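[User] At your convenience, examine this fold.
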Amino acid sequence: MTQTTTQPALAVEIDITHISRNPQQPRQWFNNEELDNLAASIREHGIIQPLIVTPPNSNGIYTLIAGERRLIAAGRAERETVTAIIREVTCEQDYLILALVENVDRSEMTPVEEGDGYLALRAQEMSNAEIARKVGVNDARVGNCINCASLPKKTRELINKGQLFISNQFISRLSDIAEISPKACDELAQQIADTQPALKVANKTASTVLNHLSLKKDKSGKKKKNIFAAASKLADMDIDEERAPTPNWNVLKEAGQLPPWSMISEAALMICAGCDLYGFASHPICSACTAARMVAQLVKKAEEQEA
């Protein structure tokens, strides 16, 4: 039996100006401070881990497969050339798969960027299982990264900055919240990024918000056009415990059609103080709760009578 061996790829020096960006590169977000630190390291020690590029085209231009962060840092370090390994690519899909493999192996992408890459492969009719096998990760990671990439813009940015938990359970709950209200998802994500609670608290908070929002769906399961509409008045006003929000409130109170405003405001604030999200949630999240709906509906009734 004849045994064949594969020669290891040799690293070569390539002019930076002769390398073009991978059109399928999933990595988009870079930390400027980290790039500056890497540039300082490259000035001192050179590029320790070679870049991966395709063979040159007819114009002598190589296409980058992996190592964009190193390429940018090398430019900042005023290097004229970079060390790279040349790898053959047989089809367009390979550009994305190889970029994912290289970046995943080096943990150089955020879950959002990784998820964007997986979504691009999904668009090419690849299943999660096929993607996992090609890239060398498990199905759960593919699904979680896809969920991260599918979240609203602000939430994606917070994940890219490393300010949010990325556990499967937490991201799954954020994804469910985003399906009902992207705004509520972004608000909750910002609250968690600002306060940095423990993962257990973050999970509980996300579950509570999801339960509140789920109650706003109609019987057919379709979401209402604006889940916060009923409580929009409360979200925009400061509650004065002593003074009613509309001149007609006290008139209706005397006629026995509305309770005293002080009683309503006290009840609402008591419910608020006992809520799991007290001191944590913001108005758009709070506006889905029972106390908020109660006050908003009563205020609306008084205003309708006044009109």
